[in-house]
Amino acid sequence: MFDPVLGMPEWLSLARKLVRGLEWLHSRAQIVHGDIKPQNILLRPRESSDSDCAKDHLFPYEPLYIDFTSSYDPSTTGLSPQGPSPSLSALSPPFAAPELLTVQSLKSTEVVQSKGSDVFSLAVTLLAAVTGDLLLHPGSSNMQRLAMSREGHRVLDHVRSGVHGSRLPIGGIVEKILSPAVVKDPETRIKPVDWLRMIEDVIAAEDPHE
Questions:
Q1: Is the pLDDT of residue 85 over 50?
Q2: Which among 24, 112, 117, 127 could bridge 97 via Cys, Cβ 3.0 to 4.6 Å?
């Protein structure tokens, strides 16, 4: 009961795949996804000929990001014809970053999702893969869960106080990997390239043959 529901090796493999994909979106494709959550990730059964098979054999699926209706190129200076944030009204607590859920942000016509909010959303998605619970927060009502989502930087504490808290031990591997991605200031959240390096270091430490 102290490991992710997937099992720790499998969860680490999934985390590496998803963070690697996010790094590609941000660095190569130069886009912000804008709505990362479990429902927007498909799992394709991996074929034996797929690249990185030896490294990622523990998780037999290739996770694919889908639904790019909220995505945009942050290097563009103008606003899209649809407005500055086509889907800000469709944000999904608890996966949306807390800075997007404030009353001021929800009323603003200028607030948009960012690379930092993508990082937060992926971290909480990976947290859902730890607990097996899409609600994550122990609040009994939608309003309570929204209030907890607005304190997103405390998401690990909220989950630890819930029914699945034993899967998130203090100082454990999951906390080590996710805590830099859920800090309050989006500008100081870990960058995907550094996040990927951290995960690979943890995997190497867990498996000397990695």
A1: no
A2: 117
